[in-house]
Amino acid sequence: MQRLAAAKAAICCGPTGPLLYPTKRWPLRRQASVQKAAPLQVRVLALLASKGSVPADLQRISSWLLDGLRRCRPAELDPAMVTELPEHVWPNPLAVPLPFAPHIRKYAFYGVGVQTELGGVLVESDTVGKEAEAQYSINTSATRDSGFFMGDGDYSCPVMTLGAMCHKGWKDDRRNPARTPCTVKEYQDKPASSSLLSGRTIQGGVTQSFRGGAASGDHIDILGNSELLSDVLTIVSGGQVEGRIVSDLQAHTERWKDV
Prior knowledge:
two-stranded parallel ribbon; 2 domains; alpha+beta; disordered N terminus; 5-stranded antiparallel β-sheet
């Protein structure tokens, strides 16, 4: 049996979360058995769900799970019919429409300018079953960042995951039947300088802030971002907040060939 040790795969983040991409060394015979029309990440997940690659429980539900991932747009339904979508597609924002709520306003507030993991290159261990060793591990020699691909984001999530649906995905009337407006506002990360009240001394005598400060764009520390807090108070008080994009989100979404 051909082993995945002869291949590598990169897990990358798209508008709906992590995606799995293969490199050029995927076994051609096994790859050909997967439907060519399916999106690339679905073809690879289907390959990983093949016999011998994953536990039996995942093999058993793989067709059900993959169906939820394959759907990239909501089904075209009769507006007069109230149809409950199957639960396995609920986590997929590409396939599940927003509720018909014309008076709701959506906002995507998040930080940018922080180095963020976009993906990693996996390799299968040759010693699986011999010791209590993980089946897959990061191939630390595959990239200059120890096996990871880095890009713009908020340290936890890349820009496409944070803003793509609001900026483009929900412009589709089938996904957003009420045409609910979506406002994207990005906050450029500006880490705070150290202070006696918010600092700690690390090895070498360098003092760093415990938290990001009043202009942080970090995934967690943005909760203390004074501009974001002011914007939230403005919205709940009935005011308006203008959108702002300072990252390459526009360029990224232009490359997203939404279907």
